[in-house]
Design brief:
The complex is a heterodimer of chains A (246) and B (641). Chain A has 246 residues and is an alpha+beta fold. Chain A has helices at residues 33-46, 118-127, 147-157, 164-168, 175-186, 195-209, 219-223, 231-244; strands spanning 3-9, 18-24, 69-70, 73-74, 96-100, 109-111, 114-115. In chain A, helix 6 (195-209) crosses helix 8. The longest helix of chain A has 15 residues, at 195-209. Helix content of chain B is 37%, strand content 15%. A five-stranded mixed β-sheet of chain B has the order 1-21-20-12-18. In chain B, strands 7-3-2-11-19 form a five-stranded parallel β-sheet. A five-stranded antiparallel β-sheet of chain B has the order 13-17-16-14-15. In chain B, helix 3 (50-62) packs parallel to helix 6, helix 14 (504-518) runs parallel beside helix 16 (557-581) and helix 15 (525-545) runs antiparallel to helix 16. The longest helix of chain B has 25 residues, at 557-581. Chain B is globular, with a radius of gyration of 24 Å. The two termini of chain B are 39 Å apart. Classes of the chains: A alpha+beta (246), B alpha+beta (641). Chain B: Residues 43-448 form the FAD-dependent oxidoreductase 2 FAD-binding domain. Chain B: InterPro entries: FAD-dep_OxRdtase_2_FAD-bd (IPR003953), FAD/NAD-bd_sf (IPR036188), Fum_R/Succ_DH_flav-like_C_sf (IPR037099), Fum_Rdtase/Succ_DH_flav-like_C (IPR015939), SdhA/FrdA/AprA (IPR030664), Succ_DH/Fum_Rdt_flav_su (IPR011280), Succ_DH/fumarate_Rdtase_cat_sf (IPR027477). Chain B: Pfam families: FAD_binding_2 (PF00890), Succ_DH_flav_C (PF02910). Chain B: Its main location: membrane.
Amino acid sequence: MNLTLKVWRQNGPSDKGRMVTYRVEDVSPDMSFLEMLDVLNERLILEGDDPVAFDHDCREGICGMCGMVINGVAHGEQRATTTCQLHMRHFEDGATVTIEPWRAAPFPVVKDLVVDRSAFDRIIQAGGFVSVPAGSAPDAHAVPVPKEDADAAFDAATCIGCGACVAACPNGSASLFAAAKITHLGLLPQGQPERDSRARAMVEQMDAEGFGGCTNTGECTAVCPKGIPLDAIARMNADYLRSATR
Amino acid sequence: MSYTVGEPIRDTKAPDGPIEERWDTRRFQAKLVNPANKRKLTVIVVGTGLAGGSAAATLGELGYNVKSFCYQDSPRRAHSIAAQGGINAAKNYRGDGDSVYRLFYDTVKGGDFRARESNVYRLAQVSVNIIDQAVAQGVPFAREYGGLLDTRSFGGAQVSRTFYARGQTGQQLLLGAYQALERQIAAGTVEMHTRHEMLELIVSGGRARGVVVRDMVTGEIETHLADAVVLATGGYGNVFFLSTNAKGCNTTAIWRAHKRGAYFGNPCFTQIHPTCIPVSGEYQSKLTLMSESLRNDGRVWVPLRKGDDRAPGDIPEDERDYYLERIYPAFGNLVPRDIASRAAKNVCDEGRGVGPGGLGVYLDFADAIARLGREAVEKKYGNLFEMYERITGENPYDVPMRIYPAVHYTMGGLWVDYDLQSTIPGLFVIGEANFSDHGANRLGASALMQGLADGYFVLPTTIGDYLAGAGSFGPVDDADVAEARASVTGRIEKLLSVNGTRTADSFHRELGRLMWDLCGMERTEESLRKALERIPELREEFWNNVKVPGDPDGLNQALERAGRVADFFELAELMCVDALHRDESCGGHFRAESQDADGEALRDDDNFAYVAAWEWSPRGPVLHKEELEYEYVKMSQRSYK
C-alpha cells in the first residue's frame, strides 16, 4: 500500500516546527507503524535528509517509550494499543496519515516526535513509592492481601507511563497517571502508612509541573493502552481529600 | 582470527568451607565503610534495569553518593520491563519439597554444568529475600483467595516456585526498583542522568575510575569520575539484529570495558527461545516472544511432506508431523528451550517449515479447544492470543499459530569473580551483563531473580569491601581522562565523516543474518570459519561505506545506532572465536560435530569444563580458563526422551 504522511518536524524546543509531507510506497500491511517509519527514515538517510526522530524501545507495548498522535488520536485509533503495536493493516491504501508529538506544556518537544516526559519521574519522586530500604522487609507471607485488592492494585499498576493520557486530555492533565500509582499503592496494606502524604505530595507535584486539572472528560482512559479506568481518579481525589482532613 | 592461551584463572575469591556457609563467611569478611565516609564515595551505576535500578537505589539507601545513567528517557523503560513469566524463589510456600539446595541443584544442572557452584548457591539463598523485598515495596504479585502468594511451576521445574504478576512480572518488579530509585533521587543520594549513553570507561592507576558519556539530547561529551563503576547494561542479543531485546539494547558499555581490560566470559552462550512470532518481512525490526506457557496446551507440528503449501486446516491428521511428540515421547511439547528451538530449525531446514519464507512451525490449539472448550482456553491464554492476533492479523482460535525460535538472552558477559568484580579493579558487573550463574543455559524465571539478587543484596555488600580501601586510590590522572575522551570523539567524528552509501541499520541486518546463519542455533567448524572470514570484511565495508547523517551536536539517533553497530561487529568476531574453540555442545551452544547417535548435544567435560574468559589484545584474543569444579552436583548428561 501507498501512504501520504504529514509529519511534525521540529528541530528543537525553540524551533517553531511545521508539518512536512512524505510519500511512502510499498508499505506491507504486516508492518508495525514504527517499522513503516523505519523504512521512511532509511530512505531519508540515503537521500541526505534528516531522519524523523521518535522515541521507541521495547516495541512490544510495555516500556512506554513510544507515543505519537496519529490522525489526531494518541497512539492512533486502535483501542488499548501502543504506537509500536499498531499495524499498517488498519490503514487504507492511499490514505493520508498525520503524525504529531504529544502536545502538552509540561512535555516540551525535544525534537520532531520526541518529547521530554521527565515531569512524570518527578511526580513519582514526590511520593510514588513505599519507603522500604533493601534488607528490611518482613517475610512475604507476614501480611496476607485479599485477592480482590491485589488484583485491583495490579490493574492500576499496569500503567506504562507513556503520557498518552496527558496528550489526549483537553486540560493537559496528568491525573490518570498519578491516580494509577496512588490507587496501586493505596489498595495494598504495604502502602497504608504513607497513603496520605503520597496523595498530597503527588497531586502538588502535578500542579507544580504545570499539568491541568481533571474535568472528567474521560479522553485519558479512552486512549490509555492499558485501559486504566477513570475510577482511579476518583480514588485519588478521595485520598487527597482524606489527607487534607487528617 | 587466531587466539592464544594465557594464564588460567585460579582464584575466584569464593570463600572455602561448606557451600551453605560461604556467603555468610564473605559477608563477615567484607570490610565495612564508615557511614560518615560513604557520602564521600561516589559510585557510578550504568543501566537502570532490575540489576542497575535496584543497585543504585540500595547504594543510595546505604549513603553512598550515586550517579545513575540510562539511555532511555526514564529509568523505568529498561528492558527488564518486558519479562513476562515470573521470578523463581526457594520459598517452599507450597511444601512441595523445594529448598535452597534444590533451586541451586536445578540451576547448575539446567546450566549444563558450566556455571560456578558457589555463585549459584548464593543466588538460591538470596532468592527468598527478593520476594520479601518486592512484596514490601507493593509489587502486586498474583495471590490466592486466602491472601497468600500464588506460585506456578515454570520451565519444566518439578516444584512450584515461580512467583508472578500475570504476564507482566518484569514490569512490576522493575517498577518496584524504579520507585525505590526515584525515592533516592528525591532524597539526593542518587543523581540521575537519563538520555545519556556510556561510550567509554576511564581506567586510571589500574582501577575503573569513571565513564565518558554522551548527552543524547545536546550531543555533549561528559566525563564523570567515581571511586567505583558498576555496569548493569544488559545482554547483547541484538548482535543478531533480530531478537526479543528492546531496540536500544547494545553491547557498547561492556565492550568498551572489555577493550580496557575486563575479560569476557563465554561470549558464545546465547539462549534461543522457541516460541516467538516469526519474521513477516524484510522490514522486520524486532521479534516478539510468546510465553512459553503456550506449550502446555498447544501442539507443535509441520506438514509431513516437504513444500506442502496447503492451508493448515486442509492438511489431514495423517499428513502432519507432531515432531516433538514423536522424537521426545516423555516430554513431548514441553522439552526445554534449547531442544525445542533446534528441533524447529531442523524441520524448517528440511523444507517443511510453514508461513512466509518457510521459517515457522504450527502451534495448534484445536485439540485444546475441543478438549477444554474455547472459554477455558480463552481464560488461560486470552491475552496472548490477542497479542498474536494484533501482530499477525490471524485469529489463533481458528488457525494454528505460527512460531519460530528467536534470540532471547545471552548467558555470556563480562567475567566476574564471587564479588561480581571484573578483572579491572573497581569495575563491577551485574545482571545479564555479567556471565555468572546461568552457565550454558538459563532456566525460565531465573533472569529476574539474578538481576535483583545482584542489585539488592550481593553488590551492595561486596562493593563495600572494595570501597573501604578508597583512601589509597589517589587522584585520577588527567591524561587517562583525556585519552578516553579522545577515543569517544574520534569515533564519532570518524562515523560522521565516512559519508558512504549504506545505513548503519543495513549493515546491522546483514551482520545479524550472518550471525544467525553461522553462529546461531547450530554451529559447525565450517560455519564459524566462514563467519570469521566474512565479519572482518563486512566491518571493513562498514567503516568505509556507512552513511551517518547530521552532526555530533543534538539528538542524532542514526549516530547512536552506528556507534552500537560498530561495537557489535567486534563482539560478533569474539563470539565466533569462542564458539569455534568450544568443540563440544552444551546448553545453548550446539556444535553439530558434537552430538550423540540420536542427535542430542554431547558435552565434553574432560576438555571443556571451564569458563572461557577472553582478554582483549590488539594481536587477537587471549584465552584464560577458569576450571569448574563440581563438589556438590554430580555431572550428568541431560535427557528428555
